[in-house]
Amino acid sequence: MKVRNPRTGLYDYEISQLSFETLKIKADTMRHAQKSWQAIGIEQRIKTIQRWKKVLERHLEELTEVLIVDTGRKIETVYEINLVLTAIDQFCDLAQDYFKVEVQTILHNNTYHIEEYSDPFELVGIISTWQFPFQSAMMQAIPALLAGNSVLVKPSEKTPRFVRVLEKTISQIPHFNNLLHFIEGEKEVGEMLCSITDLICFTGSEEKARKVFETSAKHFVPAQLAFGGKGAAIVTETADIESASSAILWGGTFNAGQSLESIERVYVHRNIHSQFLSRLVGKSNLLTLNYPNIEYGQIGPIITEKQATNINEQLADAVKKGAVIVAGAEKCIVQKGSIYCRPTILTNVSHHMRIMREMTFGPILPVKSFLNETQALDFANDSNSTFNCSVFAGKDSEAMKIARRIKSKSITINDVYMGNRFYRNEKSSTNAAETKAENIGTFSFKKFLNHKNLMFKK
């Protein structure tokens, strides 16, 4: 399979796909290695991960270069790599405390004594996404390894170039390539992982999450699914317009809007709607494309042609149904093979439009006014999948009152989603319709462990 370069439009890279037999042999080898990995204990596992981190740092320039080619952007790549390196230390610190307690008493009375203990799954399969390819893979792989598992990772076939650099670093740690292995391939390889591993962790679109869930279920392999939703922001009448508009613009356009956590809907109280819109448009117009010089400009290219088509179709549908574009353009532009979407602000939008209901993955911010708190909540909750939401208000108490009634995976007060910056916080889902894995706090490890009970009758 040939892979497209998002900055040139050329198909200048090729990946080869492993056969099922070859992958099965590798999986069996990794299962065997996992037993020793689990047995050495958390202290030695942390030391090994830290040694690998030092090797990664020695190859930082090479890793940065290939990730830039994979995604066509530099600012976000540097951010992504630094975030992962910081997170490795945070995961290691957290694991040191978490794995000190091997057995926990959960019931003790005159009749029974019940203890809970945990074992790793042995072989974890990770299918990661293209928006932040390095971060998406590593935020699952590191806690899975620390929990005592061996890990097979299939990054997106749209952004595969960094795999060969990572494999080079892994090979420098003795026997580590039998504990962590990255494989290239298309969806067929992902389907193979669903049949030969003990747990599947998927990050990506809701559509693909459903397919992974169906495939893994056929083989009775449990699946942890993390898929994006139609992120929303609510701006109340008392909100600080200056800070709210800046935060929302960043949340909607960072990485050209190509993030599972992007803000893709904005609801503003009607009494400040005009003023807010004016500031949002003014700031949006100051953002520039990182073309022709990747060192300058805040907006990188749209990574895949399919994604550009989706953006164009959603914008066309919105305009046809009455939306007004007040900043940006009606469709993506092509610059010598690369595809860009200017930061685009829309008004006069409704929930009958695809752009208000379907994932966009582009720097698009539809802005709609609301009359009161009840209507704002109706708008924000009118989505099958709202991964994250932000509430901006003059007082935290006012924002919290609204936040508690939002059906969202994560809610941020007076800022946009921060879960990818802090790893010690716990989050729980308020939307039973969504099944998503988290990389937050101790759940980072819990999801990679089989929990068992020992019951003693006195």
TrEMBL record:
Pfam families: Aldedh. Keywords: Oxidoreductase. Residues 1-419 form the Aldehyde dehydrogenase domain. This is Aldehyde dehydrogenase family protein. The lineage of its organism: Bacteria, Pseudomonadati, Bacteroidota, Cytophagia, Cytophagales.
